[in-house]
Design a protein that fits this description.
The protein has a single domain, classed as Rossmann fold, CATH 3.40.50.720. It is an alpha/beta fold and about 250 residues long. The protein is globular. It is built from ten helices and eight strands. The termini are far apart. The longest helix is centred in the C-terminal third of the chain and has 20 residues.
Length: about 250
């Protein structure tokens, strides 16, 4: 690390669990962030600030005025711009040492190719097709997947890496075997979301990413964290593998 980098990351280096070696791991890490919205904004901000060497950003949306209530990576003058390009500029302003790559919408056809270039994937999308595609790609590439979701005043978060303990640790499809009926899906555009909830869950997702990259703490793999914003409460429930899961079952 250069003297400037040592000063920038000084508070990380002071941590026994991180130190200089841990910070070097972050500088060499490659993380794909799928969704540059309410969850993606704090995820990208904290990973860039932490010095994660390469951040891939996948999103095909443009910044709208209604995004600014929760998508803190963007400014009013970004309205109408591609989110990925605006996000890359914001990252460069925050930490010019961090490199970033742009990717299109994640689909079943391109997911594995995109995922193969990264050490870890974190997603905060409201698209089940993309989630299932990422789940399968991450299993195939043996890449950890951190998944966050929010709606109204609530959020959930977990880490999926079934390949680390086959038959015991679940994948995303063990949690959601089939896409829920349209009327049961929570959509921020239709149901609304308190902006601060995306900040809470996005920051927690960034924390899980950093824990995985540094191999510190207790992973959320095999557990689901639930947040109730109105009640001011967190709870964590066990999440077992589904022996009949078509994506990760050892018998599949």
């Amino acid at each position: 690390m250069t003297p400037e980098e040592r000063e920038r990351y000084a508070r990380h280096i002071l941590l026994r669990e991180v130190g200089g070696q841990g910070q070097q791991k972050l500088l060499a890490a490659r993380v794909l962030v799928v969704g540059a919205g309410g969850l993606g904004s704090p995820i990208l901000s904290y990973l860039a600030a932490a010095g994660v060497g390469l951040l891939g950003i996948a999103d095909d949306d443009v910044v709208s005025l209604s995004n600014l209530q929760r998508q803190t990576l963007f400014r009013t003058e970004d309205v109408g711009r591609d989110k990925v390009e605006a996000a890359r500029e914001a990252i460069a302003r925050l930490n010019p040492h961090v490199k970033s790559d742009a990717h299109p919408r994640v689909t079943e056809e391109n997911a594995r190719k995109i995922v193969s270039g990264y050490d870890l994937v974190v997603e905060g999308v409201d698209n089940f097709a993309a989630r299932y595609a990422l789940n399968r790609a991450c299993i195939a590439e043996k890449t950890p997947l951190v998944s966050a979701a929010v709606g109204r005043f609530e959020g959930q978060l977990s880490t999926f890496k079934p390949f680390a303990d086959p038959g015991v640790l679940p994948c995303y499809r063990c949690l959601v075997p089939e896409e829920p009926p349209r009327e049961e899906q929570v959509n921020c555009a239709e149901e609304g979301v308190l902006g601060a909830v995306t900040g809470v869950m996005g920051t927690l997702a960034a924390m899980e990413v950093l824990k995985e990259l540094l191999s510190v703490g207790d992973s959320l793999a095999g557990r689901l964290m639930l947040y109730d914003g109105l009640g001011g409460a967190f709870r964590t429930v066990k999440l077992p593998a589904d022996p009949a899961c078509p994506d990760c079952s050892v018998h599949g």
